[in-house]
Design goal:
By secondary structure, the chain is of the alpha/beta class. Among the domains are: 52-72 and 83-168 and 273-314, 2-enoyl-CoA Hydratase, Chain A, domain 1 (Alpha-Beta Complex); 320-444 and 461-549, 2-enoyl-CoA Hydratase, Chain A, domain 1 (Alpha-Beta Complex). The chain contains 22 helices and 25 strands. Helix 2 links the parallel strand 2 and strand 3. The model is unreliable at 40-44 (pLDDT under 50).
């Protein structure tokens, strides 16, 4: 036989080499996987000491729902690159278990990495701390420094310590925005705005260079109420006269000057913290309470929240049963379509509600809402699913978190009952539309647009053409009709005269206290109160039902990958060591992207939104 030519033989040799490398890599991967799993079998899972402190170290912001695709989030966390968030339910559950666990003799609340959260969220965690302390077990709080949220939680501990070189800075509540009108004019953009509501201020940055009088008045009222609540809560928890915390915030410069610039000493002398202690001194205090760690003589016996919850959930199981109350969380901005957690996707949240509808064990639903609003069409889609649940005989109760305004209040109004915290921001009944065009910018660059059409709206909604008067009139008519629909929706579900809804509407946001006085909610209460109310409406007796959170789940393949990385960590492999770390330029670009993202992702097909600028943390 004739030998292949030189080129074919070279390709054959190359392919043989590549194929051999592929087989070797596959073998190495299999060996790695088996090595990880067999190694994990030899590593005992985290154990529970006979006596220990629960180590609670919240890192990031308190949230009702972890944001992001569950798989991507878990994958990023494996590489040490996850978003810093603290799921409130995990903290509440851990403290609840620890209260009745004889092995847990104290809690160490370490607040150095705590970024804070809405006042209603802080109150929920504080209530769990108080409930734990009712068992007679102490809570020791400490921090290298304290944020405003850190002081709030630390105030509810038995003892609160900060470093001698520490700071306690209280900024109060504020609402500051960046305004773009002059920049829009310089760029020769036409930012067409259509709105209803004297207080619907979300669009003002595109039409003004400062706050309107209406926005200034209503926002000042909101933040004054929140600051009064914060001061009252923290002052009472610290055993100080009401107003003492606000006084410290206002007089921080004078107090620091009197202490020679030592802000930590000023905070101690004012009664905000008990003492200034080093980390080692705090560890010594914990050793006094729970003893030394058998493996590390220089620290105390403890177990972290994640390990503790894993153990308790493994041994105690869940609370679901034949009859359950389902909890569905709607957290983030409303966007049309399917979106990951942390965004209220019209399709994705509707899918969760349909799961509750089609699950025979679910007898009632609690909708936990933490959203400033967004797409009106998305909120309407979700409201239809709420109606389907109610028509099927499954009551739906809304539980408002820090913010449930605009589109967030729209879906709350569709439920059987609404519970809120005094500090919840709600209402903001009003809508707007935006349609920017850039034909003047294009003309400055020598670009023009021209053509012909067959109808009055032909080419009317091209961003490179000026909006015609008929298109502007139509847009405003749609917005007016949307506002009227919003008023009718609230009036029908809340059994209120439409004029009364309009009087408390106009885009104005209210605290929970004000919302109760105006009839926008049914009662002040916690998530647990809302669950109990939903069970009662469904005819379920106390103790005869379980609770289940309906949320997006990982596929078996995704779960396998995550467990693989978890196991790798247990046997000493650190996936984070392979992670790419962004450069300073990349981090700056990410901040810019985050700043403009709310505008770029607005996707309501009708271009109509109900959104509130009302997060004050």
């Amino acid at each position: 036989m004739k030998k292949p030519n030189l080129f074919v033989r070279l390709l054959s040799i190359l392919w043989t080499g590549v194929n051999g490398v592929r087989k070797v890599l596959h073998l190495m991967l299999l060996l790695l996987i088996f090595g990880v799993f067999f190694g994990a079998m030899a590593v005992a899972p985290p154990g529970m000491p006979d006596r220990a402190a629960l180590f609670l170290q919240p890192g990031g912001y308190l949230v009702d729902q972890l944001a992001g695709d569950p798989f991507e989030r878990a994958f990023q966390e494996s590489f040490g690159d996850g978003v810093q968030q603290v799921l409130i339910q995990d903290v509440v559950d851990a403290l609840g278990h620890a209260k009745d666990d004889a092995r847990i003799e104290a809690v160490h609340l370490e607040l150095s990495g705590f970024a804070g959260g809405g006042l209603s969220k802080l109150r929920r965690v504080a209530a769990a701390i108080e409930d734990f302390r009712a068992s007679g077990k102490p809570v020791i709080a400490s921090g290298d420094f304290l944020t405003q949220g850190g002081l709030y939680l630390g105030a509810y501990a038995d003892e609160l310590y900060i470093l001698p070189e520490s700071l306690v800075i209280l900024q109060g509540y504020g609402a500051y925005r960046t305004y773009f009108r002059d920049a829009i004019d310089k760029l020769r953009l036409d930012w067409n705005i259509f709105r209803v509501g004297t207080h619907k201020s979300f669009v003002e940055p595109f039409t003004r260079m400062d706050m309107s009088d209406e926005d200034r008045e209503s926002t000042q009222d909101l933040i004054d109420q929140l600051w009064t609540m914060y001061d009252a809560d923290v002052s009472a928890a610290l055993g100080l006269e009401r107003g003492a915390v606000a006084e410290y915030a206002d007089a921080i410069v004078e107090l620091a000057a009197a202490a020679g610039g030592d802000v930590g000493s000023a905070a101690r002398d004012h009664g905000l913290v008990d003492e200034l202690l080093t980390r080692q001194q705090v560890r010594d205090r914990m050793i006094e309470l729970v003893g030394e760690d058998p493996a590390k003589a220089d620290t105390y016996s403890s177990i972290g929240v994640r390990d503790y919850l894993d153990l308790k959930r493994l041994t105690d199981g869940g609370s679901a049963g034949d009859d359950t109350v389902a909890i569905v969380v709607a957290s983030g901005e409303f966007l049309f379509g399917d979106h990951p957690p942390g965004v209220v996707g019209g399709d994705s949240v509707s899918a969760l509600l349909r799961r509750a509808l089609n699950d025979d064990s679910v007898k009632a639903v609690v909708l936990r809402i933490d959203s400033p609003g967004g797409s009106m069409l998305a909120s309407e889609v979700i409201a239809h699913e709420i109606a389907a649940l109610r028509n099927a005989g499954k009551p739906v109760v809304a539980s408002l978190s820090s913010v449930a305004a605009s589109a967030g209040y729209y879906i709350a109004a569709a439920t059987d009952r609404i519970f809120a915290n005094s500090a919840s921001i709600t209402g903001s009944i009003g809508i707007f539309g935006m349609f920017p065009t850039y034909q003047r910018s294009a003309a400055a660059l020598g670009v023009a647009n021209d053509g012909v059409g067959t109808a009055v709206l032909s080419g009317a909604f091209r961003p490179d053409r000026a909006m015609s008067e008929p298109s502007k009139q139509l847009f405003q008519l749609v917005v007016n009709d949307g506002y009227d629909d919003f008023l009718t929706h609230v009036a029908d579900f809340r059994d209120m005269p439409k004029n009364d809804v309009d009087a408390v509407g106009q885009g104005r946001a209210w605290t929970g206290d004000d919302a109760l006085a105006h009839g926008l909610i049914d009662a002040l209460g916690t998530l647990e109160d809302a669950i109990a109310a939903a069970a009662e409406l469904a005819g379920l007796a106390e103790g005869d039902y379980g609770e289940v959170v309906i949320e997006e789940e990982l596929s078996p393949e995704e779960q396998f990958v995550i467990e693989l990385f978890t196991v790798a960590g247990r046997v000493g492999l650190d996936p984070g060591s392979f992670a790419w770390r962004p450069s300073s330029l990349a981090r700056i670009a990410e901040r810019i992207e985050n700043a403009i993202e709310p505008l770029t992702r607005f996707n309501d097909p009708k271009g109509i939104y109900s959104h509130c600028f009302c997060r004050f943390e």
